């Protein structure tokens, strides 16, 4: 028996749009976690999205100020590129980093909490659209909105008897703005927020 493998490389939404409806048996994915790693990919313009953060809750639009009709015809005028990379290397007592244990680093090195926090991107001054990479959004709500967009596209191509395997890790609150009651170093609950929204 011969197996054919078809590799398609590109922005996830563009690639999924190319696939026929109900054509995929299994999806196994581990998308970029929120704010944890900059993969150095080319930024893309994300469509605004409306989703319910949990069944029964009112829908929200992200970005909140984007008009979907304006977005579709906008000649984007991008604002300033915002970028923050917080990579901590202060040695203290505590749990060793997973990356050190897994990739041959010195397991005796210990660090002060979450060792990477990243975000970057820019908003259009005209319509409010966001341009950046998945996982680098300035807010967890915008990240969850983009995950909803991706998995709506996955649902279209997934067969009725298909399965989806999603590996998604959590992130800790850092120095950026978060919902009321979330303090720095609190877990954001990204996996369950994504699960409820999906």
From TrEMBL:
Keywords: Methyltransferase, Restriction system, S-adenosyl-L-methionine, Transferase. It catalyses: a 2'-deoxycytidine in DNA + S-adenosyl-L-methionine = an N(4)-methyl-2'-deoxycytidine in DNA + S-adenosyl-L-homocysteine + H(+). GO terms for biological process: DNA restriction-modification system; methylation. SUPFAM superfamilies: S-adenosyl-L-methionine-dependent methyltransferases. Gene3D superfamilies: Vaccinia Virus protein VP39 (3.40.50.150). It is an enzyme of class 2 (transferase). The lineage of its organism: Bacteria, Pseudomonadati, Pseudomonadota, Acidithiobacillia, Acidithiobacillales. Its EC number is 2.1.1.113. Belongs to the N(4)/N(6)-methyltransferase family. N(4) subfamily. One of its GO terms (molecular function) is site-specific DNA-methyltransferase (cytosine-N4-specific) activity. This is site-specific DNA-methyltransferase (cytosine-N(4)-specific). It comes from the Bacteria. Residues 96-118 are annotated as: Disordered.
């Amino acid at each position: 028996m011969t197996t054919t493998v078809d590799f398609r490389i590109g922005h996830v939404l563009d690639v999924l749009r190319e696939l026929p409806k109900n054509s995929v048996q299994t999806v196994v994915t581990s998308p970029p976690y929120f704010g944890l790693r900059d993969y150095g990919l080319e930024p893309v313009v994300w469509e605004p999205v409306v989703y319910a953060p949990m069944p029964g809750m009112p829908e929200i639009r992200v970005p909140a100020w984007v008009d979907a009709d304006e977005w579709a015809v906008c000649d984007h005028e991008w604002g300033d590129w915002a970028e923050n990379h917080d990579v901590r290397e202060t040695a203290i007592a505590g749990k060793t980093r997973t990356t050190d244990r897994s990739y041959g680093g010195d397991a005796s090195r210990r660090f002060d909490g979450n060792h990477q926090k990243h975000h970057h991107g820019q908003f259009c001054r005209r319509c409010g659209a966001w341009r950046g990479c998945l996982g680098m959004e300035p807010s967890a709500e915008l990240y969850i909105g983009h995950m909803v967009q991706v998995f709506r596209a996955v649902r279209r191509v997934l067969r009725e008897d298909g399965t989806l395997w999603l590996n998604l890790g959590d992130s800790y609150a850092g120095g950026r703005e978060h919902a009321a009651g979330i303090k720095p170093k609190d877990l954001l609950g990204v996996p369950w927020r994504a699960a409820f929204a999906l």
